[in-house]
Amino acid sequence: MTVKVAIAQMNSTVGDLAGNRARIFDLSRRAHAAGADIVLTPELSLVGYPPEDLLLRNAFYAKTQQTFAELAADLAQFKDLHVVVGLPLQDENGVRHNAASVLLNGEVLGTYRKHDLPNTTVFDEKRYFTSADQAFVFAVKGVRFGLNICEDTWFAHAPMRARAAGAQVLLVPNGSPYHMNKQHLRYETMRQNVSAQGMALVYANLVGGQDELIFDGDSFVMDAAGTICAQLRHFEEDLQIVEFDGAVPVPQALAAPLSLEAQVYQALVLGVRDYIGKNGFPGVLIGMSGGVDSALTLAIAVDALGADKVRAVMMPSQFTADISWIDSRDMVKRLDVRYDEIPIKQTFDAFRATLATEFAGLAEDATEENIQARIRGTLLMALSNKHGSIVLTTGNKSEMAVGYCTLYGDMAGGFAVIKDIAKTLVYRLCAYRNSVSDVIPERILTRGPSAELRADQLDQDSLPPYEILDGIMQLYMEENRPIAEIIEAGFPAADVAKITRLIKINEYKRRQSPVGIRVTHRGFGRDWRYPITSRFYE
């Protein structure tokens, strides 16, 4: 007998219980109209993921239960439709669980409580939840469906327990955040832990941005042999119905795979759209420099929000090259965004005059360079305060790693779009964006990178070539490799010593940086927790 399972790949908003309830209802309505028997929503779909310390507040559970009861009553009109809803539960003793309940005809058919609680990288679930160890299986038209939640399927125990309880198909609500090439890892892990048990799998993942995390969707169906039978859209909400002939999924068209650059670019666009939209900002401000980082940030912002919500501001000094003005004007014209120029030379001269007595007899150095950056940061924040738009910072991961950025200067702002993008990847993403349509002037991509804070300045005056810097950063920071091993990989010992030292001593700057989008498996955010005060050197 045929069973139809609807995968509701939805974009929940943390704490928006009424909005999430309405979204689940609408997806269920559409699925029921299409003849679905089951609707599978993602992990904690009713409250959004991750709720973090909202999970420590009793009022959060009370409101969740009230909303859940209202949702159950709403869904009762869809006769015999099984709707799997993710929500946190707290019992009378204060024990909390990450759970998924099946609603049927206005009642709770049963509830599954998560067993494997992730507590690494960006996850802190053991801070909030207690592990459970009981399977839940229910039958629809003679087919037995089990439930696991996200991390449960990254280990063998919970799928084995579901299989032992009679499950033929495993339904898996997920809150699985994106990092580069994550989907391949998901496939291989599911084959190892679910297909190996002889079960088909329905994997429903969240989509959307939540602070620094991006959820890519990419929900899928896998048969018991490990073959992908359905693949939902990347980085978009989606609702697809997959038919099962007994416990065997019927193959259907798959969403086309994306290149790495397309993946990352779409993740950044989604992250900006949701951070700005979910937090209610009317628009964004970007400080243009004529360089590649601000160019990429501008392109992402326009693709995410539309040109009418983006304003670019050029703040030239006496050190700004003519081509920086020309290229900035060219790019904003191509994208049709508001563009203003506010020269800072007069303001910079006033600062120097004010400090002349204090600086008498001292040579100019990074102090004067940083004053320029801080003037620009002050101007952008003044415009932000006056008009309500949030400032998008333009610093990349390579700069954040080694502190090639100015506190309260170019680091000033509310959201760091390319904070987890290495400089070499910045260029690749620009090339990808131009392959879609030509919006970034070619000279921005070919000229040597410069902060333009002194005459004839280039980044490579202070740093190794970015190919070397990024390679060392990846091995040391992202892959946690020993220094000796990095040198053995072929990187110059002097560069390794310099870069790893700079990473260590600039922790204090990164702690004061805005939240930014995470696209690698380790970014400078919630999965990087080094002490500022530390005398350890490897």
Question: Can you summarize this structure?
Answer:
With 538 residues, this protein is of the alpha/beta class. It has helices spanning 17-33, 58-75, 157-164, 182-193, 260-278, 292-305, 322-335, 345-354, 366-387, 397-402, 423-436, 442-446, 466-478, 483-488, 493-505, 507-510; strands at 2-9, 38-40, 82-90, 96-104, 107-113, 137-140, 143-147, 169-174, 200-205, 207-210, 213-216, 220-222, 228-231, 238-245, 248-249, 284-288, 310-314, 338-341, 390-393, 415-416. Strand 17, helix 7 and strand 18 (338-341) form a beta-alpha-beta unit.
Describe this structure in words.
It contains 16 helices and 20 strands. The protein is 36% helix and 19% strand. The chain is an alpha/beta fold and 538 residues long. The mean pLDDT is 94. Strands 5-4-3-2-1-14-15 form a seven-stranded mixed sheet, with helices on one face. A six-stranded mixed sheet has the order 6-7-8-9-12-13, with helices on one face. A five-stranded parallel sheet has the order 18-17-16-19-20, with helices on both faces. Helix 1 runs parallel beside helix 2, helix 5 crosses helix 11 and helix 8 crosses helix 9.
- How many beta-strand elements? 20
Strand residue content? 15-25%
Give the strand order of the largest sheet, numbering strands 1, 2, ... along the chain. 5-4-3-2-1-14-15
Query: Tell me, what's the shape?
Result: elongated
Average residue-wise pLDDT = 94
The quaternary organization reads as: single chain
Give the structural class: alpha/beta
- Unreliable residue stretches: none
**For the report, how would you describe the main beta sheet?**
7 strands, mixed
**Beginning-to-end CA distance, first to last residue:** 63 Å
